[in-house]
Amino acid sequence: MSNACYEGIAVTDGKNPFGPYHVYFSSADYNPAEPGYPSLLNDFAKISMTRDAFMMFYDEFPLLGSLPGIGGGFFNGAQELVFRKSALEQGLPTMLSNGAPNPAVTVAIENMGHIRTPDGTCARDEVLHQGGITCWVAVIPAQPPAGQFDNSRGGTGFMLGSLDFYGFVPLATSGDNRIAAWAWTGLSALNSAGCATCNATIRFQGQLFRGVDKYYDPEAANFGGISAPQRVGPIPLGDQCGAAGLSSSASCPEGGLATNGDNLTQVSQAQGQIWAATSTQIAQTYTRANAEIHMGAVYWVLGTRSFDSTGKFTLTGQGYVAAKHEDLTMPAMAATPSPGGRAIMLFTLSGNGGPIGADHGGFFPSTAFGRLTSTSNGLLNSTINIAAMGRSPQDGFTEYQGFPGPTRPRWGDYSWGFFVPGSGGRIYFANEYIQYPNCTGASFTLANATCDGTRNGLANWGTSVNYVVP
């Protein structure tokens, strides 16, 4: 039997978020005709809801070189799935007692690996003429506040994705200025027995936006992206790496924080709009002879009310966010539902203060956020707020993995924000930070590496969960 990869879906049996749960599993090998079958990997899954559907996305990769993906490549593109939400809420079995599929549990699938992009197809791009490069990637479902669904066009669910396809390959130097919005419509058809009306009713469509604010953060060959610096501090695991003879100096050098490329990680829906941000390099100029390059964020706000009436999205806002002399990574956005209301962008703040060592040498990785509106063209009052201050450098095994060869630092992927109705206007948000000071010297050895229970021997990151009324 081949190794199988599944996406687990846990649905509470009632209102208690701690369970009990109904648990479902979706196999990446759902289609025997798919290139790479039966050894496909589902990666980077994200979820959302509509009135009728539980929406799920993941990127699909072939696991075995002997069974390559579309066009002989390493990637099969974004997979978009919508399940009948009420069936999952009721915990209905997917199979009847006689072994037949349960007609009450329905699903529609769009394999975006078979949709052409502006730069070619997933089977063959227009520059390198290879497979697996110009595939739709990280097309993230937009998450609305509870109950704030778009019920037009028979029930609608939205998605958004960036297009810097060549950020995955070494020739990438220019970034991109395009984004694409997508929509499922007719999702109420999922409620028909056996999805009887799905083919006639459910539609999947997209719209390309050209000339939006440009973004540039190429995904390096080792999937680390451009590294963002952090404040200098104690790195006991790095010291152990050096003591093991893997460095010519006392410690193995840090690799910084990975920015992981310029794909989206979260998309939110509120105020008749969808909101999303991604990492990008930003030039900060203080004098003509003194320019600094830092990681920042670019964001876009797209109107959905125009889609409801005309089938076309509108660009209602965009802008850049940067921290003076410092770096921002893993941005995400969430908005209140009130028309014209506020939103936040959340991110990791880190940095070494740039060439002048500003901010007393910079910041250890911290959870931070800023307020904005769809038309503010950046953060309100140009203010960044720190929700949870980092207390040490990132000192995990990914900083030194493979050293003295190439390192592959990692960070985040998990930024998320969400408006909670009935909470007094709160947006809850979460991001990674370094929550404890690193212990040093004899207090840290590979045999006793917990720093009195404040970290794991091979990692010291934590997750900060916060809320704000924007």
Salient structural properties:
470 residues, mainly beta, 2 domains, 8-stranded mixed beta sheet, 4-stranded antiparallel beta sheet, 23 strands, 37% strand
Gyration radius, in Å: 23 Å
Tell me roughly what share of residues is in helical segments. under 10%
SSE run: EEEEEHEEEEHEEHEEEEHEEEHEEEEE
Stretches where pLDDT is under 50 for at least 5 consecutive residues are none
Number of helices: 5
Query: Strand arrangement, largest sheet?
Result: 10-9-8-7-13-14-15-16
The biggest beta sheet is recorded as: 8 strands, mixed
Cα shape: globular
Distance between the ends: 52 Å
Count of separate structural domains: 2
Annotation, overall tally of beta strands: 23
Mean pLDDT: 93
Which structural category do the helix and sheet elements fall into?
Answer: mainly beta
Strand content: 35-45%
Would you write up a description of this structure?
The chain is mainly beta and 470 residues long. A hairpin with an 8-residue loop joins strand 1 (6-12) and strand 2. The strands form six sheets. It has an eight-stranded mixed sheet. A four-stranded antiparallel sheet has the order 3-4-5-6. It folds into two domains: 1-207, no CATH class; 216-470, no CATH class. The chain has helices spanning 85-89, 198-201, 236-246, 305-310, 358-361; strands at 6-12, 21-27, 40-49, 53-62, 77-84, 107-111, 140-143, 157-162, 176-185, 203-215, 227-228, 257-258, 267-270, 273-287, 290-303, 314-321, 327-335, 343-351, 363-372, 385-388, 416-419, 427-433, 462-468. The model has no long low-confidence stretch (mean pLDDT 93). Helices cover 6% and strands 37% of the residues.
